[in-house]
Structures are given as C-alpha cells and as structure tokens.
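#lab-general

N.A. 3:47 PM
ok so I finally got the sequence cleaned up, no stray characters, all 250 residues accounted for. can someone with queue access submit it? mine expired

B.Y. 3:52 PM
send it over

N.A. 3:53 PM
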Amino acid sequence: NALSWNWIFWTLSWISLLMFLCVYFGTPHTPLPKPNPKMHISWRGLLYWSFGLALLFGALDIGERVHWFDSPAFAALLIAGLFLVLITILRRHQDPNPLIALPFLRDRSTILLAVVLFAFRLFLLSTALLIPQFLAGVEGLRDEQVGPLLSIVAVLQFGLAWVVAFALRAVNARLLMAAGFATIGVTAFLCSHLSAAWAPNTFIPYAVLFAAGESFAMLGMVGALVLQVIGSGAVSTTGKPQRPADVLTF
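B.Y. 4:20 PM
back already:
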C-alpha cells in the first residue's frame, strides 16, 4: 500500500539488468571476426523493420481498448507500421544486407516453430487477460481481489521452471513442448464451460493447470529453438557459430 503503481515498471527494469548479467556471463565469449572492407552493410533496412514491427505491435495492443479503427491513434500506428514494413521490403531488394540470409528461414521446422511461437503468445492471454476480465466484468471483483489468484500462477511458474529445466536433460524438448500445449488445450476446453454462477475460487485448479502448461510449453519451445539452430548447422554443438549470417537471421 505504500508504493504506487509506477513501481511495477521499476521492478521490471531491475530484473532486466539481472537478465543482462545472466546473458553476459552465461554466453560463451568468442573473438569477433575481422571486418571485411569489401562488405557493404546497411542498417537502414533493419531500422525500418524494427520501427515498423514496434508500431504494428502497439496498434494491436491498444486496438481492443480504443475500438480499432474508431481511434485515429490506432489507424496512425497501423498505417505507419505497414508503411515501414513495405519500405523495408523495397530496401531489401535495392540494397541487400549480407548479414541477413532470408533463404535460411525457409526450413520447414523453422516455419513450424515460428507458428508455435505466435500461438504461444496468444495462449498467454488466458491467464493474463481472459481470467482477470471474467472475474472483473462478470463477478465484479476489484483488481486487488483478482491479484491473489494470478499470484498463484506466477509462483507456480517460477517453481515449475526449475523442474522443466532439469527435465530437459533427459526428455526431448519437443515432447515437453507438446505436453505443455496439450495441457493448455485441455484446460481451455474445460474453461469453455464457464458461467456467471461460478465463484472466483473455482478458477484455482484451472489457473494451476494453465501455469503448468505454459511452463512446459515455454521452456520446451526455447529448447526446440536451440535444437533447431544447432540442427540446421548454423551453430555447432559446442556453441560456436558456423554461419553467423544464418544465426542473425534466425
């Protein structure tokens, strides 16, 4: 009660610094390649692409709240994002970046993992959006009443992450990912029978199932991504990049 809502974002900023340290000390240090004066590298296409995706993400994020095209802000973000993405494509044909090897992404496994990653982002809405909105809109609960239920999900996912991480040593990452998505699917089917007569405590077992499914699906998916980079030959089993352009593209 003593802290304002602004501290939510300050907490995330400190956690991001901790993640930076984990990446810095956990990633093997490899010598940088010598620059090739004959190689012309253009960063403008990547800059256009990054801003374009950021604007599109912002448009989709606020679309539901501002009633989509009824809002000038949504229309402006969407049009600007699509324009920058189009400029990126034209820039790619005019001045290709040698650090990006788009044919590398045509692999069937890479495309399937991209679809899985997109689907997982939607599945996260089950605990982050659907359950809180149901409890607030149908049951009329306030945020501080919904919070304890969501905290169960957070605590379980933190604990299950360690279990799944150790399980990856003995079980194929794809099997763990499949088990996680299957758990999410079964839980979503069970939750499709919700009604206004349900009490908030009824959500606890389903929130637990969602937490377990999301933990297994996410870490299994990360393991599958790493295996795909190694299996494609872009990175050796020792972690040394064999084809840096393919790694950057991936």
